[in-house]
Amino acid sequence: MRLAVLFLLSAISLCAQPFSFGIKGGVPLSDSLNTSQSFPFTFSSANNRYILGPMVELRLPFGFGVELDALYRRVNYNGSTFGVDVSTNSRTTGNAWEFPLLAKYRFPSKIVRPYVEAGIAWDTLSGLVQTTTSFIASGGITTTNRTSNPPELHHSSTSGFVMGAGIDIHAIFIHVSPELRYTRWGAQHFFSPNGGLQSSQNQAEFLIGLTF
Q1: 198 in a domain, yes or no?
Q2: Which residues lie below 8 Å from residue 192, measured CB to CB, with a gap of 6+?
Q3: Structural domains in the chain (count)
Q4: What is the pTM of this model?
């Protein structure tokens, strides 16, 4: 019995050994939303400059590996419309979750190992809320409406191709991995018919991973 328990624990340890878990965070190097001001329609975006989420990696022989991330960022933009008698202001907020699945290759080295990666990613929006306030000057009337389906929403989910490069620094019991990553999305989350707001399909990021 004792020998069986020891064998089971050894098997679990061997199976778990190739996996590493950690967190990944960073900042975008490009704007996720492109906005413009063209009377009577005006859009502006206040992007939160952070990306953060958990990650897991399966380390394979000969420097290969597979990584899966769950990266969070905040969505935030404002819109205004001015007419002869009516002015409208809207504020839209929400969450974006990005799930990159990457194949990686680390070049041989002892402490600092350069690596390249490529794969696919999925991005989905959740918790969208648009609050619109309209003011009618002639009657002095103000109305407020809220919706989870803003008119600028084009696709709530999209997918794309990812590639990147970085270095893996092994410091005692932790791996520190700064990298540059580029994603080309297949569709836009947001698109305004008047051209004042549209999602960028090109995404560049600087990320740092900490794995144990």
Answers
A1: yes
A2: 41, 43, 79, 151, 152, 198
A3: 1
A4: 0.86
